[in-house]
Design brief:
Layout: H1 3-13, H2 17-42, E1 49-53, H3 59-67, E2 72-77, H4 80-89, H5 91-95, E3 99-103, E4 116-122, H6 131-141, E5 142-152, H7 163-169, E6 173-180, E7 183-189
Amino acid sequence: MSIPRNLLMRVFGRPQGPLGRLGGIIMTRANADFGAWVVSRLEIGPRDSVLEVGFGPGVVIQRLSVLASAGFVAGVDPSREMVEQARARNATAIRNGRVELRQDSVENLPFDDDSFDKAPAINSVQVWPDAVAGLSEIWRVVKPGGRIALGFTPYSGQPKETLTEMLTAAGFTNARLVESGKGFCALAIKP
């Protein structure tokens, strides 16, 4: 891995140390509006159970806990720094038992089969070790009829071309792309 790419991964991809904490502050400001747009594509209801993969500093988790006001929100992120920031940002919802945040990876989600109605992942798929394996694991924990949204800003580096094929390979159906001036989103349903 090149030095600039390694540095970017430590700041934004899999944030670590002081640079990772700084990356979380930057992501909080840079991704809030885009995260709201992606989440709106899922039409979160008050009683939904939602899993965010790669939640970063927890801004979208905070929004999800408001939308799923009588439901449950969980998240996994491999970065200790992001888990700490997200837990601080969502401390009240965590204390109330409505939000659960774990330091873990998408390849081995610590949840039962068919647990979640909706699953967003924003600017994270491009740093997963194996995207199809991660999507297959999300497929496992999403309920039949549940929906997934993979959102990417222009600086994510994620190409659009293979996303719908990856979702289909993982078992999702009705995969499609939606674009906005802020980025794009791949949507699909678990049959």
